[in-house]
Each structure stands twice: as structure tokens, then as C-alpha cells.
Design brief:
Layout: E1 15-25, E2 35-46, E3 51-55, H1 62-69, E4 77-82, E5 85-86, H2 92-100, E6 103-106, H3 110-113, H4 120-130, H5 136-149, H6 166-178, E7 184-188, H7 196-213, E8 216-220, H8 224-230, E9 233-238, E10 241-247, H9 248-253, H10 258-264, H11 301-305, E11 311-314, E12 317-319
Parallel strand pairs: 3-8, 3-9, 6-7, 7-8
Antiparallel strand pairs: 1-2, 1-4, 4-5, 9-10, 10-12, 11-12
Length: about 375
């Protein structure tokens, strides 16, 4: 899904979240009660046909955002609007009608997200039965069409998941997400458990489907090269909050938030990477003010006393920082340590997406997947 083929329309957003919060009680009573602040006031929009990448270190709250948006979790506070409807408190039949049919999820590990006791045809038919789609013949035709769209044959419909390769299983996961004709797919690390060669095929497949169906994606990943390659815009999370939302290329060439600069610098040679000091704070006891200040090379007194709001800093770019753009990719700011230690992203990203990826057609399969 190269930059030349990104089809974000800029129309009315398909999804809008405002001050979304998800806290998990962790035991204790009264003043000693502990709360894990997994998501803490996240606001974002996803346009029709757009891919919004969501990146951050492990434990930053990325997956919790996705599961809260699709209402697998009930928000602690804040609002979620989907296709013009407020789904924050939806439940029962309204949740099934307003959300489950039109918003789907592709999970990280296809080996555990598919029922090993169901044949593939039954796995794909089940959502159609739940939502009352057509009769048996129409449902079977729909299953055949979805298999074809993801590059698999109807002859495979009677197999079980364990009879497939990892790439084939993830194609089934994508087909299941598509089966009810959604407008938005939340893809949570959809390539992380796959071999590198198969990852490229799945990424190209997602791009083909987006162009053909006008899908919007929330693409959750820790792979910086991949998110730069696949996304129209990128949202950067740290400790449950958004640090920056910018067009993908802008974020990686001219980051505004110091944490974005840290991530973007991981594409540089090891000696030129910007590495923050200290350990990631606990989400049960986040720092006052800016949550990144304890590791930020340019933090000042104001950062400890005043939490920066996510504000527009340039057209199409928002950042939660009192001093946006001060820390540049060349590390020209005081307090930057030159030695790359102690950061999840110190190693090179697992996938180096090519500038001109080979397109995988709807029915193309590699020898690994045959």
C-alpha cells in the first residue's frame, strides 16, 4: 500500500472518539485502591477510506484503544461515534446492529483467533447467521466471494484452521472481518506472528481490499517501517495518551513531539538514535503533567505541573507538547544521550517495507500458502 495508492477521502469521519478513557481497577479499597490507566483521554478521528496507524511501545494502550472503540470494552468515560451514531453506551441488539456489522477486527495471532473445531466455511458463515443475512444459498455464495477476495479457493472451505499455513489462517481472519461488509477494520498487529515474506503479502492484500472496497483501517503496530509505509496518518501513544497525530511522512521526517522524534530516529544508524533516559513509568502511577517528561530530553518545570493538551500545531498535525518541534532528528537538543540503550524500539523494525511493493492479486498464492 504505497503512498501513491493511499485513498483517504477527508470526508466526514467514519469514527470519532473524544476524550476516550479506559481504566481497570486493580484491587484495594478507599485511598489504597489502585487503578490501571490503560487509556487516558484519547481523541482521534478516522476518515472513510483512510488508514490511521497507531504506534507506541508495549503497554502504551494501543490494543486497549482498539478494543474500546469496537466496544469489546465499555469506556470508563468519553464518547465514541461511529457512522454518525453515538455508540458509547450501546448494548444488545443496538450494539450488534450499529457496531458489529459495520466494524470488524483482525487479530494478531490467527492460530488462536480461529475456532479449531469449526471448518472454515462454518467460521465464515457464523457472522452471517448471527446478523440474519440471507438464506443458506446466499450465505454460501458470500463465503465463496470472500475466500476469492482474500486469495483462497472455495475448495478449502471444508478444512480446519490447523490444516492451513499461518498466512492462510490470517487470510481467513481477514475474510471473516469482511464478511458482514464493514466500513472500518481494526487490525491489531495483523502481521506480527507471520514470516517476513508472508507479512508483505498480507499488507498488499489489505491495500488491495482498501482500494476495492473503500475500507478504513485502524492499524495497530509496533513496526515503524510498516506503519510509515501503510498509513495516511500516524497517531503516537505513550502511557495511555496520544502524543502526536500527523501525516505519516511528516511524522518520520519532521516529528513535533520529543517521543515521536525518539521513534523516528530508530530508522537512523545506531549512533545517531535518540534514546531517552530512565524506565517507562507504571500506568498505575503516571507522572504529573506530561507523562513523557520523566524520560524527555527537553523537559522543563512547566512539563511537571501542566499536562499539555493535544492541539493543532500545523495544518493536519496535532501534538501534546509545550515545546513542539524543539527536539530534532539530529538530536540537536540538550540532554540527549548518544548511546542507544533501554528502549523497546532500539532494534531495527521487523519489516522493512519496500518503496514499491509487489502487489499480491486477489487469487495469488505463494508456494508457502499452496
Amino acid at each position: 500500500m504505497s503512498a501513491d495508492h493511499r485513498d483517504g477521502t477527508g470526508d466526514e469521519p467514519v469514527l470519532r472518539a473524544h476524550e476516550l478513557t479506559k481504566h481497570f481497577p486493580m484491587g484495594g479499597f478507599g485511598r489504597s485502591r489502585k487503578v490501571l490507566r490503560a487509556v487516558d483521554g484519547v481523541s482521534l478521528e478516522i476518515g472513510r477510506g483512510e488508514t490511521l496507524g497507531l504506534v507506541g511501545e508495549s503497554g502504551s494502550g494501543k490494543t486497549t484503544v482498539g478494543r474500546t472503540l469496537i466496544r469489546l470494552y465499555r469506556p470508563t468515560s468519553g464518547t465514541v461515534e461511529f457512522e454518525g451514531r453515538d455508540i458509547t453506551a450501546s448494548s444488545g441488539s443496538r450494539l450488534r446492529h450499529d457496531v458489529r456489522r459495520r466494524m470488524s477486527m483482525v487479530f494478531q495471532n490467527p492460530s488462536t483467533s480461529l475456532n479449531p473445531y469449526l471448518r472454515l466455511e462454518d467460521t465464515l458463515t457464523e457472522p452471517l447467521v448471527v446478523h440474519g443475512f440471507g438464506n443458506t444459498a446466499l450465505r454460501r455464495d458470500r463465503v465463496a466471494r470472500m475466500l476469492e477476495m482474500v486469495g483462497l479457493d472455495m475448495s478449502m472451505a471444508q478444512r480446519y484452521p490447523q490444516e492451513l499455513s499461518g498466512g492462510q489462517r490470517q487470510r481467513i481472519g481477514i475474510a471473516r472481518a469482511l464478511i458482514t461488509d464493514p466500513s472500518l477494520i481494526i487490525a491489531d498487529e495483523p502481521t506480527a506472528s507471520l514470516d517476513v515474506s508472508v507479512q508483505a503479502q498480507i499488507v498488499n492484500l489489505l491495500g488491495d481490499l482498501q482500494r476495492e472496497l473503500g475500507l478504513a483501517y485502524l492499524f495497530i503496530t509496533h513496526d515503524l517501517a510498516l506503519v510509515r509505509h501503510i498509513s495516511h496518518r500516524v497517531a503516537v501513544m505513550y502511557l495511555g495518551r496520544l502524543m502526536e497525530v500527523s501525516p505519516a511522512e511528516s511524522l518520520f521526517t519532521e516529528p513535533l513531539h520529543p517521543y515521536s522524534a525518539v521513534l523516528a530516529s530508530m530508522h537512523q544508524e545506531r549512533e545517531h538514535r535518540i534514546v531517552p533516559s530512565g524506565e517507562i513509568p507504571s500506568p498505575m502511577s503516571p507522572p504529573s503533567g506530561c507523562v513523557f517528561r520523566t524520560r524527555c530530553p527537553i523537559a522543563r518545570e512547566r512539563c511537571a505541573s501542566e499536562a499539555p493538551a493535544l492541539r493543532e500545531a500545523a495544518p493536519g498535525r496535532s501534538v501534546a507538547c509545550h515545546y513542539p518541534g524543539e527536539l530534532r532528528l539530529d538530536g540537536s537538543a540538550s540532554g540527549v544521550r548518544p548511546e542507544p540503550v533501554g528502549l523497546t524500539f532500539t532494534d531495527a523494525p521487523s519489516v522493512s517495507a519496500p518503496s514499491h511493493p509487489v502487489s499480491v492479486g486477489p487469487v495469488s498464492r505463494t508456494s508457502e500458502e499452496k
